[in-house]
Structure of NIPA like domain containing 2:
Amino acid sequence: MAALAPAGPRDAASAALDELSLNFTYGAPGPGNGSLSGAWYGRNQIHLFGVLLAILGNLVISISLNIQKYSHLQLAQQEHPRPYFKSVLWWGGVLLMAMGEMGNFAAYGFAPITLIAPLGCVSVTGSAIISVTFLKDNLRASDLLGMTLAFAGTYLLVSFAPNITQAISARTVQYYFVGWQFLIYMILEILIFCILLYFYKRKGVKHMVILLTLVALLASLTVISVKAVSGMITFSMTDKMQLTYPIFYIMFVIMIASCVFQVKFLNQATKLYNMTTVVPVNHIFFTISAIIAGIIFYQEFLGAAFLTVFIYLFGCFLSFLGVFLVTRNREKEHLQQSYIDFGNIPGKQMLDKIQPDSNSLSYGTLPDGSDSTKSQSGEKKEV
């Protein structure tokens, strides 16, 4: 029997290349390896359907936001503006937003969380394109660069996200719900949430990072419960009824409650800080939280190749950078103001804004009690 010859340098190099190529093909047994090949499309049509639903849903949401913005601008230009909730155009935007959110909800039933959650960048970039096209906003060089980076990141996300296919039944959700990974994750999340809530409520610390971290912690529960509810509804329609299990209603209650409190903290952040800052930071925090939730609860990256995970994370980074560039320093719409601002007159230093109420005794006065204030008030008394 002849002895086996030792492997030469050429054989070792070929083996290394074969191992590297497995990171870009779906020939490997791990669920997270893949590329955009014909076989990939054949095996992942269900995921692509979920991606299509998410992209269309986010585009519809961006259209609805711009319609609502346009309705507010129209109402502000009227001599006697009526409440916005009496505008048919505003309600049309609300209806479109509901349709877009339904598309996102259905997408979680067909594709992993780690694939659907980062696609929220489509809504931000789509809104920028629509506002430039229809609302005549300025198109900046940073907008074009940000859109290009966001599209490139989306391509990498779709290409290298985990292709694991799960039938989300009630028993599957129950199994994951009592798993030790999720229990440890929930303990840590509740602990962090209580600490941040203590600083927010008791200490009065309303920093944007604290508010948006609270939103992100709630968002992780939202995406877990949304995928569970959507997956069980999809399973009920295609295989066996799952809506009779108590876990479905538990997840439904978690979904509603987490959404309500998430909106509360997000509204607080938008009141205190500029939208151009809140939008990109919230998108980053939400996406990171959703990815971690999908990895821990649904184990979506189990068996994924290292290079695939790296390219996926690089795609997330590109989408984050694109959203930041699109929203950075974007000019806000200036509606009619109730005051006249003389603070920008060259060579003049004014201490406050003069109110145009000519019937008031304080008309034209400054609030610091200076000599000019006294002289103006004295002249009015003499008149």
Residues 168-299 form one domain. The chain has 14 helices and no strands.
